[in-house]
């Protein structure tokens, strides 16, 4: 097989009808312009059991997007008249556990 013209460039098509691949698509799309770093961390973690920690700014950006997504989800839920959400706390215990789990995954 001939060497690739650009070894760092890939084209991938996911099967949208597969729920696992659709979840992967959603996660990749949530990364914005950080897809390559996200995939690098995931592949190295899978292959070597390790991954390098992204720079502080990148971690903050990821956390900011996660928190915004969670707050948007809560806002969507609060729009439903049948459910009441205690707005005195910005994050539920589940939200905080999710954030802590995400931070722990980046520390590994």
Fraction in beta strands: under 5%
The shape, in one word, is globular
List segments where confidence is low: pLDDT < 50 over at least 5 consecutive residues.
Answer: none
Structural class: mainly alpha
N-to-C order of helices and strands: HHHH
N-C termini distance: 37 Å
| Largest sheet composition | none
> Helical percent range?
55-70%
Number of strands: 0
Describe the protein's architecture and organization.
By secondary structure, the protein is mainly alpha-helical. The protein has 4 helices and no strands. It is globular and about 60 Å long. The mean pLDDT is 80.
Task: Provide the fold topology.
Layout: H1 19-30, H2 35-48, H3 56-78, H4 93-107
Brief digest:
Helix content is 59%, strand content 0%. By secondary structure, it is mostly helical. The mean pLDDT is 80.
Task: Provide tags for this entry.
108 residues; mainly alpha; 4 helices
